[in-house]
Design goal:
Strand content: 15-25%
Shape: globular
Structural class: alpha+beta
Distance between the termini: 27 Å
Order of helices and strands: HEEHEEEEEEEHHHHEE
Number of helices: 6
Radius of gyration: 20 Å
CATH architecture of the largest domain: Orthogonal Bundle
CATH class of the largest domain: Mainly Alpha
Number of domains: 2
Helix content: 25-40%
Strand order of the largest sheet: 2-9-5-4-3
Largest sheet: 5 strands, mixed
Number of strands: 11
């Protein structure tokens, strides 16, 4: 699933292609992609609107249409928003097309079809489950050790499960959770309320560092992730532990081990992480 760095890269790469352009036609090829309102209302409500900005909150993208109206999208496992020349053929796995007034169109593609789109109004009555309750993001001024410490001390969950909770930290997923815990030398199964303030300070710094690295490296691509230009990320070449089961730890050379934590595949170093 694309996490904060990947979704941020999609946002940044789409801006020069679609911001300032009017939606002339909306075509939906998979009805369940549109979660709200009805497909016909979604199409009618987007046609004629100009994409004024693209924002991001956690793993969600917001295409701002003006006057508080916006398209909210979540890529889920394999979704992608891609800008292509108007003359280009329909891309594989296309589920939606926005025909724009320029020389490019915006497509939503999705192999596994878990992605979601909503047409919403700021202050409206419809609330997207999970969006309204997002916690602060890494690298934000709200994400501090002082914020994190009381939440951790109340939690009896494994620390990995704790930091994956989107109400605690928005945008962190399996890749960057494993990387944060490896960098901070904390065992993923440690109960969150056993972490000292010093350990939480190190973890906080590690979370910010791995997220910043992911953004700088244009995201992580293992299978399907691509940005708004259709390009793959490079961060997979810089990972400490994620997807490196059986390989040597980059710090000490010990063979990395994979376990399950909260049902999620988790790779760690049994020597470095305590």
């Amino acid at each position: 699933m694309p996490e904060l760095p990947e979704v941020e890269q999609v946002r940044k790469t789409l801006i020069p292609h679609v911001v300032g352009h009017k939606i002339l036609k909306t075509e939906v090829f998979l009805d369940r992609l549109v979660q709200y309102p009805a497909v016909s209302a979604f199409m009618q409500g987007t046609v004629g609107k100009t994409i004024r900005a693209i924002n991001r909150r956690g793993k969600y993208l917001r295409l701002e249409l003006g006057d508080g109206l916006f398209i909210l999208g979540h890529l889920r496992m394999t979704g992608a928003l891609i800008a292509l020349p108007a003359s280009a053929p329909q891309p594989p796995y296309a589920k939606l097309k926005f025909t724009l007034d320029g020389d490019e169109n915006l497509w939503f593609t999705d192999i596994r079809t878990f992605g979601t789109l909503y047409l919403l109004q700021d202050g409206g009555s419809y609330k997207v489950n999970g969006y309204e309750t997002l916690g602060p993001e890494p690298l934000s001024k709200e994400f501090t050790v002082a914020y994190l410490e009381p939440l951790a001390h109340k939690s009896r969950k494994p620390v990995k499960t704790f930091i994956l909770d989107q109400t605690v930290i928005a945008g962190l997923g399996n890749i960057y959770a494993d990387e944060s815990l490896a960098l901070s030398r904390i065992m993923p199964t440690r109960v969150a309320n056993t972490l000292s303030r010093e350990e939480l300070t190190v973890l906080h710094e590690a979370i910010n560092k791995v997220i910043a690295q992911g953004i700088a490296n244009h995201g992580t691509t293992f299978r399907n992730y691509q940005d708004g230009d259709g390009k793959k990320g490079d961060n997979q070449n810089h990972l400490l532990v994620y997807s490196r089961k059986g390989q040597p730890c980059r710090f000490c050379g010990t063979t990395l081990v994979q376990i399950k934590v909260g049902g999620r595949g988790t790779v760690y170093c049994p020597q470095c992480q305590k």
